[in-house]
Design goal:
alpha+beta; FAD/NAD(P)-binding domain; 7-stranded mixed β-sheet; binds flavin-adenine dinucleotide
Length: 425
Amino acid sequence: MLSELSVKGKTIDLIVIGAGPAGLMAAISAASRGARVLILEGEASSGKKLLVTGGGHCNITNRAVSERDFYSDDPRTVRNVLRALPVSKTVDFFREWGLSLMTEEDGKMFPRDRKAASVLGTLLGAARERKVNLLTRSEVLALHCRHGIFSTEGKGFSFSSKAVIVATGGLSYPATGSRGAGYKIAESFGHSIVAPSPALVPFETADADWRGLAGITLETALGLFRRGQWFAESRGPLLFTHQGFSGPAVMNLASPWARFGGQGALTICANFLPQISEKSLRERLREKRVAKPAMTIKKFLSHDIPERLAGVLLRKADIVSEKQLANFSKKERELLFRMVRSCVLPVKGPLGYDRAEVTAGGIPLKEVNPKTLESNIAPGLFFAGEVLDVDGRIGGFNLQWAWSSGYVAGCAAAEKLGQPIRSRL
Ligand SMILES: Cc1cc2nc3c(=O)[nH]c(=O)nc-3n(C[C@H](O)[C@H](O)[C@H](O)COP(=O)(O)OP(=O)(O)OC[C@H]3O[C@@H](n4cnc5c(N)ncnc54)[C@H](O)[C@@H]3O)c2cc1C
């Protein structure tokens, strides 16, 4: 509890359901504008998922974030929300509350001490200073609205408020408290739900050859195809695991996989040498064939690709690994290029929510006000964070969505309550 609960029996201005990144940001933003805020958190402590982000280091945002980094049903709303609290203002917010950030070469931003606990500590400190009340072990089971007053109910409690922000997250990592409660609440008010599915999650394969490559990582460009038509791509490290394929390159494809097809209709093709053009690869092979005709094709490939992977690619293409370059036929060369540059990964599909960093799907943005995130169906009801139908790629984008959407919903709720702006964010 942040401050002694002085709200019992009184009508609170605003109840925020969920003390994750979106809920905490919403509460701080609303309280900074004078609203009396109560957060109800179902778990024994706040921000459980935040603590495991970025392997405990918390990739808090990214140097450059735009609506193009997200999947959603309405990119324009994503853009509005990101513009209301862009990266620069997010960085200022954390700095003003005592947390400085650092940027890595690839644009990912982290707290300078690389501790997710410092991010959570900063948010809780800000909430405390803004006199936000927080009740943990207070799972909300139902929300009703009568005559403009919301009643929020759980085991042994019931609170009334003039506005509510639902920031309950999605379904990923259910052990951290996100178990889809927000969807049920939204549905009870008449909202529809874009079918949720695990996103930013590894893919499984049944093929023992690929599973046998566990431990190998390499830069790869992946393309997602539906009936031969390309419709999504992702580039980055691909990690082979005992279950199949992991790493940002493939995890980024789970959302489009679920949104645009699902198992069966889709194919993932890998280019294991994205840094070398096909033309230079062909030239290289030609030159090597002249300079070192006795070199084996496996040795040639292993210059750029891990040897074990080269072995699997050759086996899959029915090419003898020990074949010398001098005896390499034109047909074999074409087969090899196809295998290296557009190899179909035999995936069964993405793994489940217990391995998914986020949830694709959720409350459609089309059903909320694009400037305030207030429900189009129930005035006074707002949504923030992963519970909405927005999911970003790996790199700090999902937390930026939590910060920006929490800010927008918090400010809008306070404004609706008629609170004068009191101070900084
Ligand atoms: C392993 C892992 C690593 C990640 N790493 C990163 C990263 O480095 N960078 C990045 O940008 N994103 C990362 N993410 C994604 C990021 O954590 C989420 O996008 C973000 O936490 C979503 O914030 P949220 O507040 O919407 O939801 P959540 O963080 O899920 O918070 C929701 C809160 O609501 C509470 N709640 C749920 N139902 C109820 C109820 N009925 N009553 C009361 N309380 C309730 C939950 O207990 C929880 O505390 C990672 C996710 C995982 C799982």
